Amino acid sequence: MHRSRSMYALSALLVAAACGQAKTDNAPKKPLAQKADKLEIAKPKQTAAAHDYTIETKTANVGFMMEAPVEKIRGKVPGSATTGELTIDLTDVRKSAGLVHVDLSGLELFQRKAEDGKFGEETKNDMQNEHARAWLEIDDSAPAEQRKKNALVEFSLTRVLSASANNVLEMTGPERKILIEAEGDFLLHQRKSRKKVKLEATFAFAGDVPQSVHVKTVEPLGVDLAEHDVRPRTAFGKLAQKTLSAMSEKVAQVAEIELEFTAQRKGKTLAAK
Fold this sequence. Notes:
By secondary structure, this protein is α+β, with helices and mostly antiparallel strands. It is built from three helices and 16 strands.
């Protein structure tokens, strides 16, 4: 009788441990980023040298890479998916701010698989694209309102930490290039995290009149998917049995984002010839 009770207790303990392990495997391994629907920024104080710039969608190029041991995944969105505005003080670029929006509704993934130690040609796998949309909760199983919120990716540049030159107006020539290290908030899957980013900004001038600025990342912006609750899902609100860490051979846990666009100055006028 005593042995029977012991066996029963041991069985119950093993079942409880197994259930607990399943819950643990599916639970986030680290604290999730703060919940947020959208980002807000405060524009810097307006001065005579501060100008507003609007991103040209036709010039925008936003994409990411996820490199795992046996598979490389590249993601991209149409240029029209990227919008936003910058405010830049040309006498002191440290007094600048910006907000970039990216709509993931048109997201496409392409993959390269490792065969015999070498990665093959890039292809598009429809099932993989369906899975990605489920993970992000932007597929048809998500309610329309949630789908719209989850499709919104934003980066708010709130602080310039350093710049290779602070005063663009003291530079000369039709193109004036500077390197910037900045920080701000990054929004993905309705969660925001603090990020640092290195950018190259090339200002175009007509004479002494600023016309536009071309911005691109110097180094990819790394985003931890788990931190933003982007995990394997079978449908909206339904986690898959396989965890992100269990799929690490095929799916990288960090997305390396690259961004490039041209923003035109509002109300610009060409310099007299």
